[in-house]
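R.M. (postdoc): so does anyone remember the format we settled on? I'll just put the structure tokens first.
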């Protein structure tokens, strides 16, 4: 069995998981996400944890087992705590500033780079 796929996904308080056939919907304080599990993979609630199970020992299904478990675990993390990225800018002439909902970066190009 997949070492990653066999691990249960613990659900923090405020996170609700709905499983319908191969579709999983995760709702939490930071939003709602929905995903389809690959064929041969199913999800089952066991108490306050979610287990991702595989239906057969085919090579393709084994390969997708751990991936499907981590995708669902990332969905739970995203709706409960969210994600963030730390950006460190070093060097002379490099700048970053926030304008509304955009991040404008001066990185040595002939034009500023805008990220939204």
């Amino acid at each position: 069995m997949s070492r990653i796929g066999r691990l249960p996904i613990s659900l923090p308080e405020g996170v609700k998981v709905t499983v319908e056939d191969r579709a999983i919907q995760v709702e939490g304080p930071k939003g709602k996400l929905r995903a389809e599990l690959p064929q041969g993979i199913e999800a089952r609630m066991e108490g306050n944890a979610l287990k991702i199970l595989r239906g057969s020992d085919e090579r393709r299904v084994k390969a997708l087992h751990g991936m499907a478990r981590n995708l669902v675990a990332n969905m739970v993390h995203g709706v409960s705590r969210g994600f963030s990225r730390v950006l460190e800018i070093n060097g002379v002439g490099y700048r970053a500033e926030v304008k509304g909902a955009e991040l404008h970066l001066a990185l040595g190009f002939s034009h500023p780079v805008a990220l939204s």
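R.M.: ...and that's the designed sequence above, right after the tokens. Also worth knowing: The chain has one helix and nine strands. The CA atoms of residues 14 and 71 lie 19 Å apart.
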